[in-house]
DNA sequence: TCACTAAGGTTTACTTAGTTG
DNA sequence: CAACTAAGTAAACCTTAGTGA
């Protein structure tokens, strides 16, 4: 069949498979009714329909990824977002500080 | 009036004002019909309606921000995303490399 | 069990037409 | 000109029911 057409679908599948969950199970964990979880999650992953932000937020939580990860089209930036989400608070602050510094000396 | 209720609305307003554009002008630049641009952009910014990813992608371009910026709920991460988007390619790669390294020595 | 889909009912977004500052 | 909104139309999503690997 066809490959993924949407960014959300691509990111969703990557993170879901990484978490070792089925489409239906993930949907149920995110609070979707058990009778429609399979269809809805599949529609999201295949790019047939776009999830609203509320359900996306709950899906993101269950997959341990920042919500922005699922919307980013740039693979490198998506990777950066993913890594940031996995860092402890101290390293998050450090990374942000480094980014600010890199940005600063770019303008000079 | 009332404050913003949605994340998208909050990020949208910040970036739009920073760019010095009116709601209507931004909508037109993003390709929305001139007769509905004002209403639609206002509905997005006030959180009345949620924009689809396609139009959001075009809005993000005009505001010079990665699309993920508009969906991120964490202010620090949103800031990191914003900075990343403004870096040149060399610094983008450097920042990503640093992130990977920070992540690596966290697990040890 | 898991991935996936068509079709129709339901919900939401989009357009129109306007008000207010 | 800029921000904003109600109401109706149009479009998208969600549910149901089901197929096939």
Automatic annotation (TrEMBL), chains A, B:
Transmembrane segments: none annotated. It comes from Jeongeupia naejangsanensis. SUPFAM superfamilies: lambda repressor-like DNA-binding domains. It comes from the Bacteria. Pfam families: HTH_19 (PF12844). InterPro entries: Cro/C1-type_HTH, Lambda_DNA-bd_dom_sf. This is Helix-turn-helix transcriptional regulator. The lineage of its organism: Bacteria, Pseudomonadati, Pseudomonadota, Betaproteobacteria, Neisseriales. Residues 12-70 form the HTH cro/C1-type domain.
